Amino acid sequence: MNSAHLDDLFSFIRFPSVSTEPRHAGDVAKCADWLVQKLTGIGLKAELHATAGHPIVVARNEHKPGRRTVMIYGHYDVQPVEPLAEWTSPPFEPVVRDGIIYARGSTDNKGQILAHVLGVGETLREKGELPVNLIFLIEGEEEVGSKHLAEFLSANRDALRCDLIAISDTGMIAPRTPTFTYGLRGIAAMEVRVHGPAIDLHSGIYGGTVANPATAIARLVATLHDAKGRVAIAGFYDDVAPLQQWERDAWAKLPFGEKDILAVTGAAETFGEEGYTSLERAWARPTAEVNGIGGGFQGTGSKTVIPRVAFVKLTFRLVPGQRPADILAKVRVHLEAHCPPGVRLEIEDGHSGDPYLTDPHSAFGKAAQRALAASFPGRDLALIREGGSIPIVNTFREILGVETLLLGLALPDCRAHAPNENFPVENFEAGIRLNKALLEQLARG
Ligand code: BES
Ligand code: ZN
């Protein structure tokens, strides 16, 4: 590995650019500045665009008529690091152990987007120019739903005009397995609070006299699914596009199945909607997830209290056919209808993003697959969908009118969003190779 490349990645990772936490806003801004410097240093014209949230970084080479225009999108923001005690080494102090880089953002998405930047840098150094007109668009709000990016796209539609978009913010089905992703789930977030008494109460003095909000929220959450894991919200599955038979056949042959899911997750058994494999459930079926739940005493030991309020943070993963606003409305109706007596509900809609599905056999899709094949010689290519969401991808289609190619390098055990997030050095190197092959193939294909 070129040690300067690894040094660059480590510098990039050391910024704790956690977009959801106001106390890190300065770190997010510094990370964006670093990126502008890096992009300028490799010979691109780079600019920082302030938004009402975190800045957007845009960089381009000199555009020439008659060449294809390719946009490469990624994000420099990361998810929170908690629970901190579960990290083997500090999250923002990257280290390599057994060929694997450990740090928050190593996979999602700093390692992957920087591989593109460094690939472009190498091509510029070796050849003096790129085979395409290139635009880098790297934002700082992906992990909070890309709040200000859509506005930026609308306002700068002409400057951002391109023929297609490439993203490495998705996964690889197994090590050294070139993987082309043609679908993503969408997402809709909601926070629900259940209010009870005006103040926290002694559970001995008042227990039995008024409803307990923590009990009420538990009952409410329990109504979201039936006992077999199917979502029990009226109309939730109405618009779900069915899986195609070719997908089911192809996915059944992938080198990743039920056993691998158990190994990676450490769960005792797989669980979910009946009639589908785990991959089918994760990639092509919608879900309702509790991401956080709380209320009452969270400290060590016991405290006899009835909390005045309890909360749950929910996200719904959506599949083609479903629309976030429609799902949030249906969830609201469900929650109001199932609210236990004696408490008041407060429902707040959060961020959302549409699902995405593209044709893996389009001309650009095929060009991307040739680039993947060239980057991993002799390995079978996997065509997959993913369960994760990149909210802006469908907005790219709506505002810029272009399709997105998803060419990720994250492994199933990368621990994205969790303690000990990691990215193999070899995947970082593969990302640099892939960038070069991709621009060459897209210039031709
Ligand atoms: N890189 C992920 C999305 C992803 C992960 C796609 C794995 C495919 C496979 C991205 O950074 C992410 O985590 N997105 C969030 C979006 C949300 C917070 C709006 C997600 O999916 O939870
Ligand atoms: Zn992420």
Number of helices: 12
Low-confidence stretches: none
What global shape is seen? globular
**What would the CATH topology of the largest domain be?**
Aminopeptidase
If you had to describe this structure to a student in words, what would you say it looks like?
The protein contains twelve helices and 18 strands. The protein is of the alpha+beta class and 445 residues long. The protein folds into two domains: 271 residues, 3-Layer(aba) Sandwich (Aminopeptidase); 123 residues, Alpha-Beta Plaits (2-Layer Sandwich), CATH 3.30.70.360. The strands form five sheets. The chain has a six-stranded mixed β-sheet, with helices on both faces. The radius of gyration is 23 Å and the shape is globular. The model has no long low-confidence stretch (mean pLDDT 97). The structure holds ligand BES and zinc ion (ZN). Zinc ion binds next to loops.
Summarize the model shown:
With 445 residues, the protein is an alpha+beta fold.
Using brief descriptors, characterize the structure shown:
single chain, 445 residues, alpha+beta, Aminopeptidase, Alpha-Beta Plaits, 2 domains, six-stranded mixed sheet, four-stranded antiparallel sheet, 12 helices, 18 strands, binds ligand BES, binds zinc ion
